[in-house]
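Service request form, structural biology core

Requester: graduate student, group of Dr. S.
Request type: structure prediction, single chain
Budget code: on file
Notes: please return the result as structure tokens.

Sequence provided:
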Amino acid sequence: MRWMMRWIIWCCVVLLTACGTTQAAPEPPTPTPLPPDPALERPTYRVQRGVIEQVVTVTARATPVDMVRLAFRRDGRVNVVNVRRGDVVKQGDILAELQQEEALDELRRAEDDLAQARRDLESARLAKEKRIKERELDVERARRELERLLPGGEADLFAELQERLETAQRELRRTRDDASWSKTSAEEALLDRAEALSDTQKAYSTAYWNWNWVQRYGTDPENPFITNEAGVRVPNLLTEKQKEEYRVKLIQAERALRDAERNLEQAQRARDRAYEDEIVRIREAEKKVEEAQRALDMLLQGKNKTIEEARLAFERAQVALEEARNETLNSAIRAVENAERALEKARRRVNDGRVIAPQNGTVLAVAIEPGATVTAFEPVIEVADPSNVEFAATLSPQQMRLLSEGQSVEIRLLSRPDLAIPGVIRRMPAPYGSGGSGAVQDRDATTRFQVVDARGQTFEAGVTVARVSIVLERKENVLWLPPEAIRSFEGRRFVILREGERERRVPVRIGIETEERVEILEGLDEGDIVVGS
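Core staff response, request fulfilled:
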């Protein structure tokens, strides 16, 4: 710029001189030669050898390791809040409660129902003891009845069974006589019906042929010809009325034949029934005789149905006694169990309207006050152990893909950036770490960093902030340049290498790239001078 200003001033002087004289212009003076253009100064960089690291740095905040966010399990209006921020609580403490008079009434009713069910169970136990005593008395009565029927007892069954046998024998004889008479009567009735059928068949045959004759010849079938007054033998023609009489006789004969056939069938069935009745009645009478004889024989042998029944009654009484003793009182026990479940349900409903401390700790935050309306499962109180803290940060998916749980980190507090605190990645959210399966979305999507050595520092949950650095890759004894020394064109990387007074373009192959250093894999040597843009 300076040499350009000199050149302009010199031109102006020459013009003014030419305009100010009318004489011949004198010989112009020899101009002072301009200095050459100074070269534009460009930054240069030297290829160095050293350590290069690819580091991810995030901002993290101290947070309790075991912090729990507590919420009501149903909607409602807050009735009372029992804690404030900083209060120390114990496991089971009620921190807050909704307005829930109805639920508390239901809990009291459930407690009363359980008490009643337990009283009913006790009454059932007393009733069981009473039934056992009654069954013991039944066993004793059955035993005495059996002893009375056994040989040598008070009851004498022989005469009764002997009388029963004789009665059955008399009934058998009477049945045989009655059955024989009935069968004979049925056979005689059958013969009468058979003879009547034969007579009816003959009458039908005569009526059939007479009507056939009348239809064919029109004369009287019984007297076909007569002698007239002139003494001439002529056909004995019938009038229409006479013909109708023969037709009616045939119809009557058919009806009589069917009736006779039905009567015969009935007589046959009656005779068959008589035969069957004779067999059945005699068999039943014989069976009674056999049963009476068997009962008498069993008695003589020391066996008897009545005695067997008495023995069975005694055994049944013993079984009933055993059942009474083994009675489990299932219905009363189930009633108590149902009442216990109802009480547990009522307690759960009441507890759903309460915020209860699940662990010992300190209240870190309270987001409700009496009279406020709350939504179920929306956190309202935070409780944790403030002495056990770690750092949490929200990382991008691109960052988390490069990390893994257990990886070492360096933590520097914003208040002490000069102090490096060692740590490790304790947990990462799914699907990048063990924080859930990934199938269910975890509300806590932060990455947690555990402090290995606090180096004498204290951390306050929710207040202490730090920068966490994670080394992704580290190489030693490698060539490197700053990023501004590298140029690119159409996706290719190159540098301007200065060799004395000469500069030339050199392509390079790049390795690790950080904000401060770029690894040079090929194209340059240590100590080379590179011209920046």
